[in-house]
Write a structure and sequence with these properties.
about 0% helix; elongated
């Protein structure tokens, strides 16, 4: 079975001087019984007015139990 997943994890500061943190996780892969595997991309932005951005591209393997 082919599957895709998009997840957003966002942190909004409770104190004005702290940074925002935004993370988006994208997954595309196959599911065979309890196993999921495929390609993944994580995008992260951290900051207040100027954001530091990082990208992480790779593979994943997950077992759902």
């Amino acid at each position: 079975n082919l599957f895709s997943q998009i997840e957003f994890v966002n942190a909004f500061p409770s104190v004005e001087k702290n940074n925002f943190a935004f993370t988006q996780r994208l997954r595309l892969g196959l599911k065979i019984k309890e196993f999921q595997f495929g390609a993944g991309l994580d995008l992260t932005q951290l900051g207040r007015s100027n954001f530091t951005k990082t990208e992480n591209l790779g593979g994943f393997l997950r077992y759902d139990f």
